[in-house]
């Protein structure tokens, strides 16, 4: 478990944006012998082969072909997660110059908790698209990798009622301070300079970018017994890493797949989101004949892994008293009668049986009946491809904050169950 959590923190450090998360997953898959495929090419898949594709550089699907039987007889053991997290994105024309301060305008991505973004050491990372000096178009990942921006709070002396509640105006409160100068900033020139620092020299013109702010504080273990992990983007890179770890460890000969989509935090409706066709396109290429594909899906199951709300000791009344998950007490089955989660009694029973075989405790979450329930990629993917689905998650605090908290036991426990799931010969039914 100690090694697992150290690798988790290494992954979180590298995965500062969805693009960086996928790049790190690609690196790990390639090191384990997975073969990268391109959607524009013809595929030749071998029994027992291990493959991956990425789309837009921010969504990825990796899978293992069964060794001794066809996919229609094996089925697929699938795990789904998402690569994106709520954050602040740099606007396309971000330059602001006010009172001698260089600032950038930002846009809120997803349902972010905004207060924790103030007074943090922030940096910028993402993808840059540019024209090369030879006229070709290219792209590269960029990371300033140092504290370079901040959103300063207003002093309490100038807002005496701030501790009694203050709404944050995303347009006027959130522009970040980069520094001071006597003239306005040319942001694209700054990006070109940083690309040169990173060894990308043949840039004639930066054409566009997709950049996010991130907190530079490194992931850490804390607590009297180091029982908690603190990091940015635990929702949902924690699940991406758990699925990655389980797939790399589980070369069992069965059909196994991991899908990590972008854009979950904004509804999943995109070419690379769970409500888009990416997974369907892969399944159609694995088994082009519709009847064979349906037989495969009837033998398959998807586990949607996305973090759950742990019982906060200061706000325990926000949970149903019989369904309040505790940190370090096991992964959480998420249930909702209105199908905001895709769990059924059948898929829940399968997971409980797998967990029991690993001696892993299981918890259950049901939202209070007088509160609205969130959702995941589970119901979306289940509806798109028609597969049995379970929603599971590691309990955490401070979901959608700039820095989140989970238990070190829970991630390791879920990885062990998913390893067994990937190797399970049959999935009931």
From TrEMBL:
<keyword id="KW-0862">Zinc</keyword>
<dbReference type="GO" id="GO:0008270">
    <property type="term" value="F:zinc ion binding"/>
</dbReference>
<keyword id="KW-0031">Aminopeptidase</keyword>
<dbReference type="Pfam" id="PF02127">
    <property type="entry name" value="Peptidase_M18"/>
</dbReference>
<comment type="similarity">
    <text>Belongs to the peptidase M18 family.</text>
</comment>
<keyword id="KW-0479">Metal-binding</keyword>
<keyword id="KW-0378">Hydrolase</keyword>
<protein>
    <recommendedName>
        <fullName>M18 family aminopeptidase</fullName>
        <ecNumber>3.4.11.-</ecNumber>
    </recommendedName>
</protein>
<dbReference type="GO" id="GO:0008237">
    <property type="term" value="F:metallopeptidase activity"/>
</dbReference>
<dbReference type="InterPro" id="IPR001948">
    <property type="entry name" value="Peptidase_M18"/>
</dbReference>
<dbReference type="GO" id="GO:0006508">
    <property type="term" value="P:proteolysis"/>
</dbReference>
<dbReference type="GO" id="GO:0004177">
    <property type="term" value="F:aminopeptidase activity"/>
</dbReference>
<keyword id="KW-0645">Protease</keyword>
<keyword id="KW-0482">Metalloprotease</keyword>
<dbReference type="GO" id="GO:0005737">
    <property type="term" value="C:cytoplasm"/>
</dbReference>
<dbReference type="InterPro" id="IPR023358">
    <property type="entry name" value="Peptidase_M18_dom2"/>
</dbReference>
């Amino acid at each position: 478990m100690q090694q697992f959590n150290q690798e988790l923190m290494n992954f979180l450090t590298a995965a500062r944006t969805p693009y960086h998360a996928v790049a790190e997953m690609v690196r790990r898959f390639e090191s384990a012998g997975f073969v990268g495929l391109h959607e524009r090419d013809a595929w030749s898949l071998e029994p027992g082969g291990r493959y991956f594709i990425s789309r837009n550089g921010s969504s990825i699907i990796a899978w293992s072909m069964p060794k001794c039987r066809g996919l229609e007889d094996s089925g697929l053991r699938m795990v789904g997660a998402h690569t994106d997290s709520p954050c602040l994105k740099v606007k396309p024309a971000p330059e602001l110059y006010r009172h001698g301060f260089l600032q950038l305008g930002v846009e809120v991505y997803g349902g972010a908790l905004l207060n924790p973004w103030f007074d943090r050491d922030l940096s910028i990372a993402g993808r840059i698209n540019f024209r090369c000096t030879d006229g070709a178009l290219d792209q590269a990942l960029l990371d300033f990798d140092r504290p370079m921006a901040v959103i300063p709070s207003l002093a309490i002396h100038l807002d005496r009622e701030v501790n009694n509640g203050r709404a944050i105006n995303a347009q006027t409160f959130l522009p970040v301070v980069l520094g001071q100068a006597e003239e306005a900033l040319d942001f694209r020139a700054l990006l070109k300079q940083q690309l040169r620092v990173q060894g990308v020299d043949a840039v004639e013109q930066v054409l566009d970018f997709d950049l996010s702010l991130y907190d530079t504080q490194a992931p850490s273990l804390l607590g009297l017994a180091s029982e908690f992990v603190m990091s940015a983007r635990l929702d949902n890179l924690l699940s991406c890493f758990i699925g990655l770890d389980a797939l790399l460890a589980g070369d069992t000969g069965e059909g196994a797949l991991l899908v990590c989509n972008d854009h979950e935090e904004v509804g999943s409706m995109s070419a690379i989101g769970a409500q888009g066709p990416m997974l369907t396109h892969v399944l159609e290429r694995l088994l082009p004949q519709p009847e064979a594909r349906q037989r495969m899906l009837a033998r398959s199951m998807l586990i949607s892994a996305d973090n759950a709300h742990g019982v906060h000791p200061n706000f325990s009344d926000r949970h149903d008293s019989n369904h309040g998950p505790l940190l370090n007490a096991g992964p959480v089955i998420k249930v909702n009668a209105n199908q905001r989660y895709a769990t059924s009694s059948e898929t829940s029973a399968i997971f409980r049986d797998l967990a029991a075989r690993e001696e892993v405790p299981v918890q259950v979450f049901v939202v209070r009946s007088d509160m609205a329930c969130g959702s995941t990629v589970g119901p979306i993917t289940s509806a798109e491809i028609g597969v049995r689905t379970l929603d599971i998650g590691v309990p955490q605090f401070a979901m959608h904050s700039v820095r989140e908290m989970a238990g070190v036991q829970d991630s390791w426990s879920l990885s062990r169950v998913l390893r067994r799931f990937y190797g399970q010969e049959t999935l009931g039914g």
